[in-house]
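Researcher: Please translate sequence to structure tokens.
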Amino acid sequence: MSDIFENDDDDISGIYDDDGNKINPELVPKPSLCLLCRKDNDPREEMLCTLNRLDQQDEEGEFLCGAYEQK
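Model: Translation complete:
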């Protein structure tokens, strides 16, 4: 999971984990359900979608998303 972290001390914007490590959203795997979602690649939803994917990244089983809307 350490591959998703960035180390740029000059920039404080972005998404951070509970330990203060900056997360690179492009390196968080995107489940196939996301590719079928109307909100995929919507800049207004990007942060929430990334956090949901990150939260479930190490879990076994089916990826779940309460905000999913079929295209």
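Researcher: Any highlights?
Model: The chain is about 20% helix and 10% strand.
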